[in-house]
Design goal:
Helix content: under 10%
Strand order of the largest sheet: 2-1-4-7-6
Subcellular location: Cell junction, Adherens junction; Cell membrane
Number of strands: 41
Protein name: Cadherin-4
Mean pLDDT: 78
Strand content: 25-35%
Radius of gyration: 71 Å
Membrane topology: Single-pass type I membrane protein
InterPro entries: Cadherin, Cadherin-like_dom, Cadherin-like_sf, Cadherin_CS, Cadherin_Y-type_LIR, Catenin-bd_sf
Function: Cadherins are calcium-dependent cell adhesion proteins.
Shape: elongated
Number of helices: 4
Length: 733
């Protein structure tokens, strides 16, 4: 078997004869190809199949240039089997480009065995193909083993180098030394980079601007790295360069290679190579005294570095002339000016002017090798403007001590103010601003404080023994200024208040154990040592008080009706209300006949008997009408004010034989006791008040034994009908 290989490159056609190597089986060593021969008895008439000798096909690679102009189909190789002399052979190819996508790139003449390429090839799409050639008889039986066909697409320089971007951005510090890396550019060529078709080389076509020289940069032709080639980069002169870079394949051969270009923008970055410089050697300003947070001078500066960067931002410092720290310098973020500002008030009387020394720097330190400028330091003169300041009281508040009770017209002190304006001839006048009790006055020229009333420590305007008053001092400046001062008077207590009893009144039951009493105490608005211990005693008038009451000390405060503190004393009238004590009866209330009119089974005078006038029964509001009566003027139905009779004391455990004697003795004592009711009068059940509208009934003498006509009771109405029937001698029914 043999094959012809025809390769076309450009307009040349190469004819290659391929010789197939024949190997016989069973020749040489075991395992090597041998040709087997069949015996003649195997070739009997019963078997018509042609048994060919085993052969190996070897086809060298087929190189096909891309972008061939044809004509197509273009024959590449011819394949023939040596058995086609005896039988008919059909040839076919399989693989990518034949019966697999992309289909029909290659074809073969099934009879002649000639293989063709049907269209131009593109190495950038597919650089090689692997096909297999087959030979079969008319029955489709394989007569030869498949042969491998390798087809390589030969690269042509049909692609230009391509940059990923048309514009590249890089940067480099100003003042950089030659050889400093700036940026990297790269172009890609789709052609075979193992051949000159894909080998790209770089060069700089132009530089804009040409300052300080036209060739400030260079580019590595193979790597695309751009570096500085000369010194002199200065951002303040040229802040940006534009460079045109060309990439060419064919190893940079401008005659045969293809080229493309891109633009490199190189920014020159700022370094702090320009120190800030003040625009003047001296600055000036003025400030009113006692003012803060005001700008008194404005410092201007020039810096040629990048605006609003740390290399440009100015930082001001005061290095002399302000030891106390009255001033600070604030940087204006927009203009970079320095604003001299007052942070502590200045006093014209102490400093009329300030001579400041100011230095300015940047936020960022100066670059290596850069020296500060002499113009970074200036002098600033600040004049202080005198302002009328208000008078002030040197001691404020001012405290003094006096005993209470100081009379009106007493000079307490001189409360004067000072004028801080020593260089102004001004006068001060005084007035009262606050005097809650209106106890004081002040001399309007010298500030002397004089009392206008008696000072009382117990006044409601005194707090914690201190009385406060506020005064005003006004100068005659333009404009006028004023200051206030507070005077605190500590009032020392004197014994000028008598004690008083507490509580003011008390209550006691009518029937009470004679040993019972009322607890009282005393209060004094003074303070120690002008208060207790208190001494209590009863008044001598009326005499009945000492007969009926006694005073005994319970503790340090004591008990009684009147008190004496040893220096000052007071007599207090203490009302004591007697309350009737109601006890639970031991019998049924309906069987109690005490102080009651017995009711019999007779109907009296109808409903009129029930119409009682209760307005005559009055509860006295107080006992003052009794206590205030002169001696000897008393109503006969009141208890006489004489010593009480002594009643026999009932034994704790009385003997049954002595009970009669005890009752008789008590009866005799009651009959002879003028203080026991009735007091030559009707029994008093309740006091009806003074000026009773019913008049007195004391003229009715129950002890009279003479005959008396009671018929007039019939004229008193139905209320006295029962009494008239009893005494009027009416007929008994």
């Amino acid at each position: 078997m043999y094959a012809r290989h025809i390769a076309a490159r450009s307009n040349c056609i190469f004819v290659l004869c391929v010789v197939s190597f024949r190997s016989e089986w069973n020749r040489g060593k075991k395992g090597r190809g041998r040709r087997k021969r069949r015996s003649k008895h195997h070739q009997s008439s019963s078997s018509k199949v042609l048994r060919r000798q085993k052969r190996d096909w070897v086809i060298p690679p087929i190189n096909v240039p891309e972008n061939s102009r044809g004509p197509f189909p273009q024959m590449l190789v011819s394949i023939r089997s040596d058995q086609d002399r005896n039988i008919s052979i059909r040839y076919s190819i399989t693989g990518v480009g034949a019966d697999q996508p992309p289909n029909e790139v290659f074809s073969i003449d099934p009879v002649a065995g000639k293989m063709f390429v049907t269209k131009p090839l593109d190495r950038e799409r597919r650089s090689s193909y692997h096909l297999r050639a087959h030979a079969v008889n008319m029955n489709g039986e394989r007569v030869e083993s498949p042969i491998d066909l390798y087809i390589y697409v030969i690269d042509m320089n049909d692609n230009r180098p391509e940059f990923k971007n048309q514009v590249y951005n890089g940067s480099v510090d100003e003042g950089s030394k030659p050889g400093t890396f700036v940026m990297h550019l790269a172009a890609f060529d789709n052609d075979d980079n193992t051949t000159a078709n894909g080998m790209v080389r770089y060069r700089i076509l132009s530089q804009t601007p040409h300052s300080p020289i036209p060739n400030m940069f260079t580019i590595n032709s193979e790597t695309g790295d751009i570096v500085t080639v000369a010194a002199g980069l200065d951002r303040e002169k040229v802040s940006q360069y534009s460079i045109i870079v060309q990439a060419t394949d064919m190893e940079g051969n401008l005659n045969f290679g293809l080229s493309n270009t891109a633009t490199a923008i190189i920014s020159v970055t700022d370094i702090n190579d320009n120190p800030p410089e003040l625009t003047s050697r001296t600055f000036s300003g003025e400030v009113p005294e006692n003012r803060v947070n005001v700008v008194v001078a404005n410092l201007t500066v020039i810096d040629r570095d990048q605006p609003h960067s740390p290399n440009w931002n100015a930082v001001y410092r005061i290095i002399s002339g302000d030891p106390i720290g009255h001033f600070t310098i604030i940087t204006d973020q927009h203009t970079n000016d320095g604003m001299v500002t007052v942070v502590k008030p200045v006093d014209f009387e102490q400093n009329r002017a300030f001579m400041l020394t100011v230095v300015v720097n940047n936020q960022a330190p100066l670059a290596s090798g850069i020296q500060s400028s002499l113009q970074s330091t200036s002098g600033v003169t600040i004049s202080v403007v005198d302002i009328n300041e208000p008078p002030y009281f040197p001691t404020n508040p001012k405290s003094i001590r006096f005993e209470e009770g100081v009379p009106a017209g007493t000079s307490l002190t001189t409360f004067s103010a000072s004028d801080p304006d020593r260089f102004m001839q001004q006068s001060i006048r005084y007035s009262k601003l606050a005097d809650p009790a209106d106890w004081l006055s002040i001399n309007n020229t010298n500030g002397q404080i004089i009392t206008t009333a008696t000072l009382d420590r117990e006044s409601i305007y005194v707090k914690n023994n201190i009385y406060e008053a506020t005064f005003l001092a006004v100068d005659n400046g333009s404009p006028m200024a004023s200051g206030t001062g507070t005077l605190q008077i500590y009032l020392i207590d004197v014994n000028d208040n008598a004690p008083s009893l507490l509580p003011r009144e008390s209550q006691i039951c009518e029937r009470i154990n004679r040993n019972a009493g009322i607890n009282i105490t005393a209060a004094d608005t003074d303070t120690d040592p002008n208060v207790g211990p208190f001494v209590f005693e009863l008044p001598t008038f009326p005499a009945s008080i000492r007969r009926n009451w006694t005073v005994s000390r319970l503790n340090g405060e004591g008990t009684g009706l009147a008190g004496v503190d040893g220096v000052l004393s007071s007599t207090n009238i203490k009302p004591i209300y007697v309350e009737r004590q109601t006890k639970q009866l031991l019998i049924d209330p309906e069987d109690d006949v005490r102080d009651n009119i017995l009711k019999y089974d007779e109907e009296g005078g109808g409903e009129e008997d029930q119409d009682y006038d209760l307005s005559q029964l009055q509860q006295p509001d107080s006992l003052e009408h009794i206590i205030s009566k002169p001696p000897g003027v008393r109503r006969v139905d009141e208890r006489p004010i004489i010593p009480e009779s002594q009643y026999p004391i009932r034994p704790v455990v009385p003997h049954p034989g002595d009970i009669g004697d005890f009752i008789n003795e008590g009866l005799r004592a009651a009959d002879n006791d003028p203080t026991a009711p009735p007091y030559d009068s009707l029994l008093v059940f309740d006091y009806e008040g003074s000026g009773s509208t019913v008049g007195s009934v004391s003229s009715l003498n129950s002890s009279s034994t003479g005959d008396q006509d009671y018929d007039y009771l019939n004229d008193w109405g139905p209320r006295f009908k029962k009494l008239a029937d009893m005494y009027g001698g009416g007929d008994d029914e």
